[in-house]
Amino acid sequence: MLDYWERRERLFRKSPEKEKQEEIRPDQQIRLASMIEESIVDGPGMRFVLFTQGCPHRCPGCHNPQTHALNGGTMVSFERVLERYDRQPHVRGITFSGGEPFLQAGLLAKVAEAVHQRGGDVVVYTGYQLERLQELAKGNAGILALLGETDLLIDGRFVQEKRCLEAPFVGSSNQRLLALSLLGNLLLNDIPVLPNGPAIERVTYC
Amino acid sequence: MHSAIVQTPKQIVKRDGTLVPFDYFKIRQAIAKANATVPSETLSDDELDRLTAEVVASLDANSQPGVEDIQDVVELVLMENGISQTAKAYILYRSEHAKMRERKSALMETFKRLSFTDASSTDIKRENANIDGNTSMGMMLKYGSEASKAFIDHYVLPEDMAKAHAEGDIHIHDKDFYLLTETCCQIDLQKLFENGFSTGHGFLREPQSIESYAALACIALQANQNEMHGGQSIPNFENVMAEGVHKTCHKHIKDVIEEHQLLSGDKQLLPEMVEHLLTFNYDDLVEALRKIDLGDVDSKDWPEALLKLVRRRVERSTYQAMQSLIHNLNTMHSRAGAQVPFTSINYGTGTSHAARLVMRQVLQATEDGLGDGETAIFPVQIFKVKDGINSQEGDPNYDLFQQAVRVSAKRLFPNFSFLDAPFNLQYYREGDDNTEVAYMGCRTRVMANIYDPNQEVTKGRGNLSFSSINLPRLGIEARGSIDKFFALLDKKMDLVFRQLRHRFEIQKRKTVLNYPFLMGQGIWIDSDTLDKHEEVERVLRHGTLSVGFIGLAETLVALTGKHHGECAESQALGLKIVQHMRERCDMRAQEEHLNYTLLATPAEGLSGRFVKIDRERYGMMKNITDHEYYTNSFHIPVYYKISAHAKIDFEAPYHAFTNAGHITYIELDGDPSLNLSAFEEIILYMKNAGIGYGSINHPLDRDPKCGYSGVIGTVCPRCGRKESPREPFERIRRITGYLVGALDRFNDAKKAEVAERVKHA
User: Fold this and answer.
1) pTM of the model
2) Hey, are the CB atoms on B675 and A38 less than 8 Å from each other?
3) Where along chain A do its domains lie?
4) What is the domain extent for residue B628?
5) Which CATH architecture does the domain made up of A26-203 adopt?
6) What is the domain count for chain B?
7) How near does any CA of chain A get to the CA of B688, in Å?
8) In what order do the strands lie in the sheet with A152-155?
9) ipTM surpassing 0.90, yes or no?
């Protein structure tokens, strides 16, 4: 654990072929349901969490139904988010949850990039499946960028019949833990497989 | 008499319920007596008559008024007539007498309360969360304890000390034991086991296997618990038990060789090999197997299968020994069967294979839980974290640290102590576990020794007694003046110093005969040098006398409007206060050559008592007296929302000052066993921040029906069953350092405190 930072230092590199994006002004705003400064239930380690507002999936039995409305929540500037993040120098990284983070992918990618620059890692929850996101990314630079900045993606809708309590960080057993970078592999390593828990698909990055 | 005919009641009811004839002159006399104390308001005989008549006229002639009813009327009449000074004197006189009567009957009233109410409705039965106040032995203990307290208040304690305790200026902990014994001891089992020992009811030979080591450890803890009122601790658990592992290993080698020679026909081991193997202890065995694994020795020369069989058997024996130790410590009783011994074990730094096996197995047994998988309440387990030994990848015991993290995330124990904190590191000498600071469950720490600086060690020492200061009251009384606060604090500390000394003067007069085990068997340091009839003073001086405090947060609110989690100036003042207290303790220690130390008080039973008295005295004051409890020692209030790291940063500097013991808690929301890296991050953050002793609290709920354990609200998330009074969920929480199986044994203030705790992550 302790040499984690060393390890990640070595492993982390920016993907060179990242798409050029429109310059984002620091005062541009993210629609948020809430912000949590320290959480142990939204990914490995102590994490800073953004719950984005607005979700098209609306899975029955959703844990956060208040985040569904597309116009709800509060607008928080990119700058303000980072300012709050910087006040928690001890967190391991950031988690985007929601809501559907990929509805605001472009701005969140910028946040993720800044977090990476500060040595943090990035976990993203999504109701889409990775394959679908990759398809959407073809026509959407923001989604492509956020996928590029994501270390660990936890994907798939919440399915009430497959709800599971014992598996860490997923709501239902159809959801997958997907490492999208070497840093993602480290995150994956820190998620225990419980002997009596349901089988959750894990994909390491190579 | 002025008025013509006054109808009077025929009889009145006395306090004890008997009827006596109404007596006009008694009323007059009472008024006259009160008036006589007020020279500025002298009443003439006529006036006295008139007032008395007025009182009598106000009484219903056809009733039988009680004494109190009549006194009420007297008060009213005096006040209505504007004779206010006399009225005041009269009221004072009344309340003084009420108090006197109260004192006389207080003990019997207490007994009544104890006898005729259920533990769930009376706080005094739940003062101590590990004693069951409903059982007959628990009750017997309570009768004794209450009678003892009454005796000590009225016949033993100097008046100012008794008053300070009764009025809530200070709290004399374990006052019922004032005339009897000391708080706690860190037991050196190695010394005790050598050549066997006696519990007073039979002699026990030196143990010869890990199972006996574990069993005798429990017996020693129990025997000592019966002679002391605080916790019992083993400061170097793994190193003691390692000796048992070696002995068991030797036995298994003998057995396995014997079986082998019997069954192997012509493939018998050569006598030289047998002889060589019989010299093996467990460490040799593991080393031999490792060399075989590495190919350093020719496995043909070694009976590899045989060695592996021995290793398996030793591992199993050790696991079973650790499991039964935990079972025993949760089921055996002390104090006439009313209480499980308060036991703690410290481990973490032993690096021999045998010591490592002990730790692995005791952690495993803790993780597996008791019979039904319940969380064990005892012993309190403390994992010593030390750089170079177990704090990072590559350290020999890092795997055990990670195991400790996993077990703690599931079972709340072990807690973590940090030997690298400067105030602990200064005593540390590599390879000598007697120089490793150990903690006892309630957070007690004993190390420095002004009486004998050559013996700044853990083994055989403990706390003699401790008393705590009600800091918030001083904060309130200072009315915003910091200077006044420090003056009041100094006065109060002097009182506590005197009181601790007063108690010590009683304690030191005891002889070895008073402690057949603690002193008779040489548990307490140097007690083996005492003559049987010798007074224990010279060995007792190795112990500590501790000044505790409670409610730094409320104190700061009273002084500055904000507590130390809210504002930097308050934090600076908080540190100044605690540092000052420590300096006073150090000075006193120099003067008297006694180990006066400063304690961050574990406030069981006390956290509600002070605030209750202060609320009556000063009324509701926001964030001072408006909660059901005063915040523990230097803690940030549990209701205040603060991040885990900030809480650690704020509390860490206080650890350096509180040399008699301290602990920092972090409350986690959610099940940390699913996020061990977060758990580990917090523990290591504590280490780096200079915390001495810390622990992480998290909800530990279990549905006994479906077996789900984790966070449960009112509905079990797995089986969907609602909690009902007949089948409640099990909820384990930590209270002043100890785990308690169910909230119903918490006293009211502690219940409120648990309910108000906010999570730090």
Assistant:
1) 0.83
2) no
3) 26-203
4) 166-184+445-662
5) Alpha-Beta Barrel (3.20)
6) 2
7) 12
8) A74-77, A29-39, A47-52, A93-97, A121-125, A152-155, A176-179, A202-203
9) no
